[in-house]
Every structure is written in C-alpha cells, then in structure tokens.
C-alpha cells in the first residue's frame, strides 16, 4: 500500500510575545495530530519546519509542502491564529485543504479554525473542516476519509488511460471526451489499436505462456472442452495478458480499457484472462500492483474504477447490471472476465481465491473461444458507484450494497438462468429496484468491499462534481 503523503502546517498568533508563550503548546498539539495520523499506517506526514506566526514563515511552509510534493495539506489550529497566514500559505501549499481545530478552550483553537476557514472561502478555497481530539477514533476516521479522497484526486493528475480499440457496440456511455478528462481530472488518453496486442502476444515466448498456464491449472479448475477452450487457446489468452503489460509499460499507461467485441472475440480470443489478472493484486509471476482494466473500452467505467482504486487501495469490480431476481431481491452483477479473481475469496493470496475459480469455456457469442474466469463474489458490505455524464456534466451515482453468500444449489440455479460460465456477484442493494432503475445512469457498475460512501462524496466535492446516493 502506497502511503498518502500529507502536509501539516500549524499556525500561531502574529504577536511575538503570544507566539513565544504558546509555542511549546502548539508543538505538542501538532505532535499529537502527527502521531495519530501515522499510527494508521496509511499516512506519511510532512511537517512544516516552523510554527507559522509571520507571513514569511507562511510562504516558507507552503513552499516546503510544494517541494515535498504532498498530496493535500492540513492547516492545524490549537490557538487563535491570524487568518491571513493561512491564506498566504495556501498560495504555495498543495491542495485540497483540511482545516483542523484542536480542543483547547482556554486558547481558542475553534476560533482560529473558523476565522481561517472563512478567510479561505472568501478567496474561493473551500476547505474541509474537522474539529476534535486526534486520538478520538471518530475524529481520526473523519480525517482519513477526507485524506483518502484528496489523495485520489491528486493521484489522477498526470495519469494516462490506454484505450485499446474504439467505441464498443454503439455504447455512448462507454465513450468520453479526452479533452474533458484532461480539463477536469488531468488525465491524458492514449489510443492503441487492438492489433498491437495480437502482434505482441504472438511474440511472447512459448515457455513463458506454458509456465503461466500450468500455474493456473494448478491453482484453479480449468475445464477444457477441446473446442472453445484448449491449452493452446488458453495460452493465446495468457499471451494477450503479457502483451498488455508490455504495452502498458512502453506507453507509460496507468489504467486501460479493451474493446474486445467483436474483433478479438470473433477472430483471436477473448480478453477475459488479461482483464481479470490486470485487476488482480497478483499474476502468474507473483504479487503486483493491480492495474485497472475495463472491458468494452468503458472510459467512465475505468475512471470510476481508478478513483475507487486510489481511495480503497484494493482491486475494483467491473460488472454488467445483468438481472434482478425479484423473489430473492438480488441484483446479479455479471460480466465476462472483468471480475478480478480477488473477489472469489477477498484475499491477496492467489491460492485462497483461485481455489474458488473455474476457467470455463466461453459459450456466448465469442466464436474465437477462450476461457471465462468463473467464480462467485465473496460476501461482504460493498460500495458500488458509477461516474457518468448528464448533459455533458459529470455526476457520480453511489449505491451502498451487500454481496451475499448463496448455497451451491442456489448459485447453480440462478447462474443457469443468466450466464453459467461467467463470474457473478449477487448484490442486495440498500435501495429498492424501482429507485435504482429510475436513477442509475448506465449498464455497468463498479465497486469495492467496505463502506467508502463518505470518501466518494468528498471526492465529488473536491472535483466539483454532482453526486446522488441511492440508499
């Protein structure tokens, strides 16, 4: 897990005698905040070298944060502080900003917080406000939720999305404007022809593909049928994975999307293996960083997944909103290949997940053949979401839900009605289906285990994006 680099600037009174009198107190309050944040294991703290009581120190502190390349800055107040110092620090210190007020009633930290936050808002900077003891778990969680969102917004800047192929099957919701992405998120879009995957896949050494195939056969169940799925076809799929990795490295891509249908699925092989293992925290060669990969070159889907990845720092689900089982009150989320095998066991260890995975012959409209990565998502609370455009403006729809565990008999009965060879996640939504169908913006959804609703709302506010919560 890459720690989130957070800057802290602590402010003071502009009068020298007050500053000197309260200096050690200020340092102790700052130390408590630093200690609490670092105790989470999520945060790397960068402190300003001085407690700020003069304009020169405010500028210096801001420049120190800039030089350290922090992902966001906390302005810390434990006493009354002169508000213009916060404004001057904001000219240099990287945002987003969180104004934090310590509990210190005799020396009014709350007054300092409110005066500084108001000053920042007057110049168009709208910081998050948190007040309380840093050791309080509720307060610390508020800080972390904002830090995660701010870090995600920061990490998107300068990333590159690799679009392998064009718009799939006429899907407007899968295509986005690269100019808008650069303007709103700082993301560059690189177009890559799918034929580049084929060319590189054919050059992957046979021994490397064989070794990967044998690893997969050892840990998962592979159901060869002699037609749609053979060892040779599975190795073609593995070759596509290694080809994608090579292009990602060459083009310096951060996340990707593959068109797949119909060119690859008609003429070469499905991309299920590549898509699943790119999204996984491991592959045939060991542990690795998950690389967000969306099928059907779904740009806004990939962007939603990348936001989730930066916030939760876990693999992210991509799925079709496939079917609603009314009697069971379950939404079936299924998609060929796109469920990382991580979801089969909710583990970072491949052996724990792959024992629940079947590489199943494709029986859908994919004449080139290949193995589908079949499994059922492990149970647990999840946050689902989708970033989509409405009349050109981005809106995020957030859906709290739970993946439920079914009996083997129920899994077989329900999956046979939909797509038996594909992976499934059976979701019980917090909202009702009428509300979901009225307001959910497209046919794809994305999500992670855990409750990240507040982080997504913070992200939307930071990026000035509208949001709606279906709960």
Automatic annotation (TrEMBL):
InterPro entries linked to this entry: Fuc/Ara_isomerase_C, Fuc_iso_dom3_sf, Fuc_isomerase_C, Fucose_iso_dom1_sf, Fucose_iso_N1, Fucose_isomerase, Fucose_isomerase_dom2_sf, Fucose_isomerase_N/cen_sf
Molecular function (Gene Ontology), one example: arabinose isomerase activity
CDD domains linked to this entry: L-fuc_L-ara-isomerases
Domain L-fucose isomerase C-terminal intervals: 333-466
Record flagged with keyword S-adenosyl-L-methionine: no
Keyword tags: Carbohydrate metabolism, Cytoplasm, Fucose metabolism, Isomerase, Manganese, Metal-binding
Gene3D superfamilies given in the database record: 3.40.50.1070, L-fucose Isomerase, Chain A, domain 2, L-fucose/L-arabinose isomerase, C-terminal
Domain L-fucose isomerase N-terminal-2: 256-307
SUPFAM superfamilies linked: FucI/AraA C-terminal domain-like, FucI/AraA N-terminal and middle domains
PANTHER family: L-FUCOSE ISOMERASE (PTHR37840)
The name this protein goes by in its record: Fucose isomerase
Organism: Petrotoga miotherma DSM 10691
UniProt lineage: Bacteria, Thermotogati, Thermotogota, Thermotogae, Petrotogales
């Amino acid at each position: 897990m890459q720690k989130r680099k957070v800057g802290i600037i602590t402010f003071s009174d502009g009068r020298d005698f007050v500053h000197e009198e309260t200096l050690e107190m200020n340092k102790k309050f700052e130390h408590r905040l630093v200690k609490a944040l670092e105790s989470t294991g999520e945060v790397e703290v960068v402190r300003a070298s001085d407690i700020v009581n003069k304009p020169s120190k405010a500028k210096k502190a801001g420049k120190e944060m800039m030089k350290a390349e922090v992902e966001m800055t906390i302005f810390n107040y434990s006493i009354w502080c002169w508000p213009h110092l916060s404004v001057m620090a904001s000219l240099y210190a990287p945002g987003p900003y969180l104004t934090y007020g310590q509990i210190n009633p005799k020396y009014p930290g709350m007054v300092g917080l409110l005066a500084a936050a108001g000053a920042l808002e007057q110049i168009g900077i709208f910081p998050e406000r948190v007040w309380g003891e840093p050791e309080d778990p509720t307060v610390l969680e508020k800080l972390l939720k904002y830090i995660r969102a701010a870090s995600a917004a920061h990490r998107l800047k300068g990333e590159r999305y690799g679009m392998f192929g064009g718009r799939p099957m006429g899907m407007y919701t899968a295509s986005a404007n690269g100019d808008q992405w650069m303007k709103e998120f700082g993301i560059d879009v690189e177009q890559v022809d799918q034929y580049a995957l084929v060319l590189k896949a054919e050059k992957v050494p046979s021994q490397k593909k064989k070794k990967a195939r044998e690893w997969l056969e050892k840990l998962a169940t592979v159901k060869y049928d002699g037609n749609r799925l053979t060892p040779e076809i599975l190795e073609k799929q593995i070759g596509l994975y290694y080809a994608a990795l090579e292009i990602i490295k060459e083009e310096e891509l951060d996340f990707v999307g593959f068109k797949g249908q119909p060119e690859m699925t008609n003429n070469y092989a499905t991309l299920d293996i590549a898509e699943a293992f790119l999204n996984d925290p491991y592959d045939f060669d060991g542990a690795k960083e998950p690389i967000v990969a969306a099928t059907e070159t779904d740009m806004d889907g990939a962007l939603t997944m990348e936001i989730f990845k930066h916030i939760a720092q876990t693999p992210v689900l991509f799925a079709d909103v496939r079917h609603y089982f009314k009697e069971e009150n379950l939404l079936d989320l299924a998609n060929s290949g796109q469920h990382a095998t991580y979801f089969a066991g909710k583990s970072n260890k491949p052996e724990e997940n792959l024992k629940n995975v079947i590489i199943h012959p494709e029986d859908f409209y994919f004449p080139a053949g290949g193995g589908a990565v079949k499994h059922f998502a492990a149970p647990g609370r999840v946050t689902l979401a989708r970033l989509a455009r409405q009349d050109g403006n981005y809106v995020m729809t957030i859906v709290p839900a739970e993946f439920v565990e079914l009996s083997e008999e129920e899994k077989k009965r329900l999956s046979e009605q939909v797509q038996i060879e594909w992976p499934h996640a059976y979701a019980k939504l917090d909202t009702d289906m009428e509300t979901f169908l009225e307001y959910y913006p497209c046919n794809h959804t994305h999500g992670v285990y855990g409750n990240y609703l507040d982080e997504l709302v913070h992200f939307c506010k930071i990026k000035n994006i509208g949001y709606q919560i279906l709960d």
